[in-house]
Amino acid sequence: MAELLQVQHLKKYFANQKAVDDISFSVEEGSIFGLLGPNGAGKTTLIRMITGIFYPDAGQITFQGKPFDPIHDVRHIGYMPEERGLYKKMKIGEHALYLAQLKGLSRSDAMRQVKIWFERLEMESWWNKKVEDLSKGMSQKLQFVSTVLHEPRLIILDEPFSGLDPVNSNLIKDEIHRLAKNGSTIIFSTHRMEQVEEICQQIILVNRGQKILDGTVNSIKQQYKQSQYRIGIPALNEAHLAEAPFELIQSKENEQIARIADGKSSNDVLRFLIDRSIPVHSFVEILPSLNDIFIRLVEDTPVTRQFQPA
Q1: pLDDT tens per residue, range 240-274
Q2: Which part of the chain is CATH 3.40.50.300?
Q3: Is 126 helix (H, G, I), strand (E, B) or coil?
Q4: Which CATH architecture is the domain 227-286 placed in?
Q5: CA-to-CA dists, residue 245 to 66, 226, 261, 286, angstroms
Q6: How, if at all, do strands 3-14 and 17-28 pair?
């Protein structure tokens, strides 16, 4: 799959602080890419460089195979910031039309797109309401529509589910998948790791301005697994436990959580159980959650040295 966006050795310094310190990654066309990190990690600075709001101090951004040109390329990008960026006194319909035309759509094309999206997200009855009268969830839906209605090649969503109830969260989630299926590339930034596992194919984790992890969600979970299994067997007696090729982490009546001993394999465990006529109803490897990996790596990241200008 072709790469829509490449970030190469990007750096951005503020006073004596390294906000982004030599970060590189690429985003494949049509993919949903997770940009993760704790508060102050450098995510927002990265996004602002990708959208042309900030210029990098070093490094290069390549967009659609060419050096990124903020003046020309920004119209192919839709950015939904975490902070609300809406004009409170405007009516919702007029607001969406105004932002669509800022992105280069004609009045008629903007009207057509706004009507399509308002119908899709069940917003038709809001047309004449003022932005200041919207709930947080309604404002979030308006921001999402304003971000995507000009059909950008790259869509950047910063905490897109903030303030949404479960029904509307699923509605936006379905639209994100539909947009990616139709060719849009999506960078998804959030603190909610369960949403990342469900939505993203590939992620990058940044902390203190540095990249500390990147790859596909599945490969990362495989990399940090700890040989733990959920085994559907009855509780074992002391004799079995003494010679077992695993240690029990948690024991229930008909389910045991076990960690395989060093040098042993899952086949060794199954062979041990079968040889002793212990009925095995299930045998499932436990992969770490992205949340567990996130916490582990962020806590282990050394403090970045401050930048000392020459």
Answers
A1: 888 899 999 988 888 999 999 999 999 999 999 99
A2: 3-222
A3: helix
A4: 2-Layer Sandwich (3.30)
A5: 55, 15, 6, 17
A6: antiparallel
**294 close to 288: Cβ distance less than 8 angstroms:** no
Residue owning tokens 């159980």: 273
Q: Which two tokens stand for residue 237?
A: 């007696």
Return the half-sphere exposure (C-beta side, CA atoms, 13 A cut-off) of residue 149: 33
Cα separation, 157 vs 192, in Å, equals 13
Name the residue with tokens 């903007």: 110
Pairwise CA distance, residues 114 & 100, whole Å: 8
- In sequence order, what E strands does 74-161 have? 77-80, 154-158
Q: How far is CA 212 from CA 17, 40, 71, 297, 298, in A?
A: 18, 14, 31, 8, 8
CATH 3.30.70.100 domain position(s) in the chain: 227-286
- DSSP 8-state class, residue 191: S
Question: d(Cα 192, Cα 36) in Å, to the nearest integer?
Answer: 9
Look-up of token digits 């319909």: 93
Beta strands in 100-232 (DSSP E): 154-158, 185-189, 202-207, 210-216, 228-232
Largest CA distance in the chain: 79
DSSP letters spanning 204-216: EEEETTEEEEEEE
pLDDT in tens, 113-168: 999 999 999 898 889 999 999 888 889 999 999 999 999 999 999 988 888 889 99
- The CATH architecture one would assign to domain 3-222 is 3-Layer(aba) Sandwich (3.40)
The whole-model pTM stands at 0.84
Across-strand partners of 188? Answer: 34, 157
Number of residues that this document lists for the chain: 310
Q: What is the DSSP letter of 130?
A: B
C-alpha to C-alpha distances, 205 to 14, 54, 210, nearest whole angstrom: 21, 21, 9
Residues 6+ apart with CB under 8 A from 231: 255, 256, 257, 258, 269, 273, 280, 282, 283, 284
